Amino acid sequence: MVMVMRSISSCLTLSQTPPPPPRPRASNNLSTQKQCKRNSRNYCITRPQILPPPPLSRDALGFRVFVLSDLHTDYPENMNWVKSLSTKAYKNDLLLLAGDVAETYHNFYSTMSLLKDRFQHVFYVPGNHDLWCRSEPEGHPYYLDSLDKLNKLLDACRGLGVQTRPMVLYGLGIVPLFSWYHESFDREMDIAGIRIPSLEMVCKDFHACKWPREISNRSASLASYFDAMNEENEDAVKLIKNTCTQIITFSHFLPRVHHLSRPVLKPRQELCPEKRMLFYPNLPKIIGSDFLEVRIRSIHGSEGNASACHVFGHTHFCWDSVLDGIRYIQAPLAYPRERKRRMNGGETWLPFCVYSGGKFADRLSPCYWSDYYAAHPRAPHVTELAPWVARFYNRA
């Protein structure tokens, strides 16, 4: 997740189907970030808890794959949650970490060590928070920029036995995908007539990440750079495609869902609520990558299949849906205050077991936003703010 206005994003926590949004009411006192934060706390509604799956005997489970994203263990509550995971229950299992483990190298290394002690196999892709250039405790690595930090994190993973490359385990193909977002990913209609804070004001990446001059957050160059990192794994991916009938890909950022099999249709942003539903309506500009969608479809095929799954993170919305033949899942731990309101579906269902005994798990339930869009078509052309959003914005 990339929000400075975290309390705003964490309040997108409705427990019932949103009604059609009325016209936003003007207000004279809601234009500053501090006021938005204060008022957002007054209107939060808690979401339903995702139901944990029924317990099965160890013999019935076989090889299991768990998924998790957005650990953010710089928060002591989140680090304690990781420490509370059983040291015995997952000893034969695999964990896919879809990015945003921690902001500091110290907490990243500690978290990965804890998880590797608990799971037989751990796979990881970097998130944006992992690459923030924050101050570190004395004795920990110094990094020139975010790419230098990335290399040090990958070195740490190799030292701990954490995998960042494609691999086949028990006949299941696992493909980590490096990615970054770009603003042009967002092609849906913007919300006009309200004062929306700039990306630089809301997104700490523009300040906490440091990049060489030739790549930038404000163009597709950074997303292209990260996508190119996947090319050195093409031989391994080709082997997986030729030998595995079941494949799980995973990334931190979101793909588009492109309708490659039906190119006459416009691309959709199916894995995030519409802008009118979001406390920060410009969130879609800092969440996804067209390069990632092409990469995913090159692995799973344009039509997908019943054994195709992609896991992602970043937005902190629990998600489970099948789109164009691929199952998309997000299982975020998220921030402590978000868990209290169950924006992420709570914590008793985490980590989520997506695969066991040669089969993919049943669908998450209830899973608020993906449930909503399973019953309601997206309407991005509707730009009238939802009522829980409208109260935070002045008309421009």
UniProtKB/TrEMBL annotation:
One of its GO terms (molecular function) is hydrolase activity. It comes from the Eukaryota. Residues 6-33 are annotated as: Disordered. It holds the Pfam family Metallophos. Residues 63-192 form the Calcineurin-like phosphoesterase domain. Residues 7-16 have a biased composition (Polar residues). This is Calcineurin-like phosphoesterase domain-containing protein.
